[in-house]
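REVIEWER CHECKLIST
Item 1: Sequence provided? yes
Item 2: Single chain? yes
Item 3: Sequence as submitted:
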Amino acid sequence: MAATVTETFTLGHSPDPDDAFMFYAMAAHKIDLRGYHFKHQLEDIQTLNERAMRGELHISAVSIHAYAYVSDKYLLLPCGASMGDGYGPLVIEKHRTPNAEHRTSNEEERERLRNRLIAVPGTMTSAFLALKLYLGEFNYVVVPFDQIFEAVRSGRADAGLIIHEGQLTYAHSGFAKLVDLGEWWKNRTGLPLPLGGNVLRRDIPLEIQSELSAILRQSIEFGLAHRAEAVQHSMPYARDMGSDLASKFIGMYVNEFTRDYGEVGREAIRRFLREARERGYVDREVSIDFVK
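Item 4: Structure as written out by the authors:
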């Protein structure tokens, strides 16, 4: 498109260091935005999922679980993935029980968790779907992701499903890990656990879709090439994390899968949503389509 383009696109992403890192170059105009303007809208992932179901934003981060319910309105961008390659959301509890780590791998531990109340950060999150694939049906209460530690600490819930920075801070906060769902999924399938992606509305003209996809890829690549300044930009969103821990968290979820899903990443999405569909946790066939 010509440099005179002035169209503004709404861009939804979560107020987390990995998303801030990913969109740094766009927010700070470090790359050529090709005449486009972007209105950044920061919301928690559950809110972004709900807004995507209504088709409100032009571009948005969404949970891969939620993509099953918005694929009629959105295409997946080929970059911007959050994949847990052997790590991912955690189930934690307040006190370590004897041999808890041993029991997380067997049916006895699963049965124990099924009969406990688990605080979850939203039913459209990929973490919630992964936990259903791991446990089957279980008892849960929905709690904002940043209040799950307190829900478990206070006894409102027996255990918590932890996403975002809690995956690195849980032990310091006085909790014990029962299961790492990304590790479980990797051991079982050999694939990374697909957690989040970025989507683009289908009604945007094809030539503009391609340009917007290229801009996002350039933003990710700029952050990876200028890591120190991109991490510094992300620090205001690094709840309870110093720069070293924030950099570690960013490295977990902004990586080569973020630059491009590749065939492994695409197969991970297909497998994740196919298993969910087969087990009745997704109630529709999903068309997994990427921006060309």
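Item 5: Key structural point noted by reviewer: Residues 206-225 form the longest helix (20 residues).
Item 6: Recommendation: ____
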